[in-house]
Amino acid sequence: MRSVTCAALGSLAQGCSSAWRRSCGRGVSTACGKPKVMGRISGGRDVEAGQWPWQASLQSQGSHVCGAVLINSHWLLSTAHCFLKKPKAPESYRVLLGSTQLYQHGPQSREAPVSRIVTHPDFEKLHPFGSDIAMLQLLSPVNFTSSIVPACLPAPGMKLPSNSSCWITGWGMLSEETPLLEPFHLQEGKVSFIENKFCNMLYGHAKGKNFSVHEDMLCAGDFSTGKSICHGDSGGPLVCDFASSWVLMGLASWGFDCRHPVYPSIFTNVTYFTDWINEIQRLTPHSEPTSALTLPPEPTSTPAQTQVPHQSLRAAGSSTLGTAVVPPQTCSLALLLLGTLRQALW
After folding, report:
1. Which residues have a catalytic role annotated?
2. Which of 29, 69, 212, 272 is most exposed, with minimal Cβ within 10 Å?
3. Is beta strand 134-138 parallel, antiparallel or unpaired with respect to 93-97?
4. CB neighbours of residue 106 within 10 Å
5. pLDDT of 3 above 80
6. Cα-trace Rg, the chain
7. pLDDT given for residue 255 in this prediction
8. Where is the composition biased (Polar residues) (predicted)?
9. Rounded-to-10 torsion of CA 275, 160, 230, 221
10. What is the pLDDT of residues 260-316, one digit of tens each?
11. What are the two backbone dihedrals, phi and then psi, of residue 113, each rounded to the nearest 5 degrees?
12. 45-79 burial, b if ≥16 CB within 10 A, otherwise e?
């Protein structure tokens, strides 16, 4: 893998700490989005240690709640719906970093306490799962290692080439009925972006309901394999390879249950919120623990607690413990529906 200088990364490196960026160019571990392990293990098998070093597990009382993504030494991103009907006090949560197994910590893993939870003030105010993003501030900065590296933040409004290599990771259910079993290895799946207008046609015909994919969301999946997010994957990353660095484009947000491979997964569009993310970091003081859910720049706002509008529309997060892999025989159904919808679009 060729090296990339800080100048070449440009605004992509804004998710990394300044000290981390200054050392850019000295090796693959000296910039955001650059894991040391670059191998791929497809088909729902285990991920190698250090392969996706920004992946974190948000845990409460020792149990996995949601995925999260390290963006610099102080902050992680996750989804706001992870905190619906959950404790709001930051001290109720810890973040597991540097591990590909949920409950078997290795020498490179670290548990970090959370000092502040910032959910977007517009969460679900405009539409279901709208502004589904949250920021987690660590009590103390984390040291980067071969197993702990931040993902790069995209520039606001950034768009990637259609042939970009993009991957999802998580510790969620393998299917609607199949939980991830011990030792709870991190799972991965390769996906492609799907235009929102096409995704809206799929969801608009779903069981007579009109579930919309908006501009603050991304639609992605793989019709040939059925890979999608499932319960427990919420808040986890959708990262894409750009200029030899992995850029955080999406956060696992919602979709139909894992029995329906025709329906792609929906992710929070990180580029839509890059300015907000930077503003929160600018306005928030470092490393002071608090017991309150804080929402700068509107600290008086109360996060919406809107119920999910329909039972078949589900968040990917759950207290239950990969990436769903649906049997290949479902592909013919997906392709048939795709052909019909393409004709309608044209």
Report:
1. 81, 132, 234
2. 212
3. unpaired
4. 11
5. no
6. 19
7. 83
8. 301-310
9. 150
10. 556 788 999 999 999 999 999 999 987 654 433 434 443 333 333 222 233 334 466
11. -70, 150
12. ebbbbbbbbbbbbbbbeeebbbbbbbbbbbbbbbb
Distance CA 175, CA 241 (A): 27
List the one residue out of 187, 104, 90, 184 whose CA is nearest residue 137: 90
Report the sign of the C-alpha dihedral through residues 139, 144, 146, 148, in that order.
positive
Token pair recorded at residue 25: 């160019």
Report DSSP state, residue 285.
P
DSSP string of 115-152, one letter each residue: EEEEE-TTTTTSSTTTT--EEEEESSPPPP-SS--PPB
The CA–CA distances, whole Å, from 315 to 56, 180, 200, 220 equal 18, 17, 17, 15
* CA distances in angstroms from 231 to 79, 111, 118, listed in the order given: 13, 23, 22
Q: How far is CA 281 from CA 9, 89, 118, 286, 321, in A?
A: 20, 19, 10, 9, 31
The residue whose two tokens read 């679009």 is 345
SS3 65: strand
Tokens of 38: 């670059």
Helical residues (DSSP H) of the chain, grouped into ranges: 6-9, 18-22, 196-204, 274-283, 331-345
Higher pLDDT, 341 or 168: 168
Residue pointed to by tokens 């149990």: 63
Q: Is 322 exposed, middle or buried (0-12, 13-18, 19+ CB in 10 A)?
A: buried
- Give all strands (DSSP E) within the chain, no chain letters: 55-60, 63-70, 75-78, 93-97, 110-119, 134-138, 166-170, 187-194, 217-221, 237-242, 245-256, 265-269, 313-315
Q: Give the closest residue to 237 by CA, choosing from 116, 79, 96, 104.
A: 79
What is the pLDDT at residue 154? 95
pLDDT, tens only, 150-199: 999 999 989 888 778 899 998 876 666 666 766 788 888 888 898 999 98
Answer whether 104's CB lies under 8 Å from 141's CB: no
Question: Which has the closest alpha carbon to 179: 308, 318, 311, 62?
Answer: 318
